[in-house]
Amino acid sequence: MKNHPLTVTVITVCFNSVKTIERTLQSVAAQDWSHIEHIVIDGASTDRTVSIIEKYRAGLAQFISEPDHGIYDAMNKGLALATGDIVCFLNADDFYATTDVISRVASAISSKQLDALIGDVGFFRDNDIHRTVRRYRSDRFTPKRLAWGWMPAHPALFMRRLVFEQIGYFKTDYQIAGDYEHVVRAFSSGSLRYQHLPVILVRMQMGGVSTRGFRATLRLNQEILRACRENKVSTNYFKIFTKYPAKILEFLNK
Fold it and tell me: What is the mean pLDDT of the chain?
């Protein structure tokens, strides 16, 4: 019996994203894979975000606009609605680098019987979306490096929905590192079958919440330490901070 084409659920969460949401929606609509379920969760935006989303409503599987309790609560709402074989997150500051991202991911996961696929992210500044100023290379990630604070680039992480069902939702009491904690739950056992695709799958705008200055960095690393301890991954601040020299090199090795 022939395998059915895998359906990919793309979850987009946004709030007051009038400057970038249309680019995100267009990049999903332009994908050459026809089996896409696009779910958009808006946190009751007060600008024109909702009116822009409504222009693309016909191409969306689900659209909710209501108050939430932060980004991880919004992501959980999307997960609760997801029905695809593969689930991923594309936030309102991000867009797919090419029109064949989803088809390449779905084909690789299907043909190689993977639980997850990870790719790279190219960061850009808002004045030049086509120039990569930093490349987040997910091939440096392994489950053993969770203790050092490493994770795959989250917008370029694609996992089977069955994995989400096994590990549960995001913890909403995390402010910045809820995605890291979720990755720890998924990968720390070392049993997840995954592969790295050595290309930039997603382009992301610089200036996200986890890169906004010293206080955000401190909060991020506090939450990384907490995530490891809650999931019985042995670590300490020294291990976690050793990743920063390698991260600086991401600006040079694009």
Answer: 92
CA 89 to chain centre: 4
Task: Give the tens place of pLDDT for each residue, 185-199.
Answer: 999 999 999 999 999
Where residue 254 falls among pLDDT bands split at 50, 70, 90? low
Which tokens belong to 50? 């909702």
Do residues 205 and 124 touch, judged by C-beta distance below 8 A? yes
Rg (CA), the chain: 17
Per the listing, tokens 């894979």 go with: 33
Q: Which CATH class is domain 8-249?
A: alpha beta
pLDDT in tens, 205-253: 887 554 556 688 889 999 999 999 999 999 888 888 887 666 655 556 6
Are the CB atoms for 123 and 134 separated by under 8 Å?
A: yes
196 and 116 in contact (C-beta within 8 Å)?
no
> What's the CA gap between 125 and 144, in Å, rounded?
32
Would you state the structure tokens that stand for residue 9, as one six-digit string? 């659920």
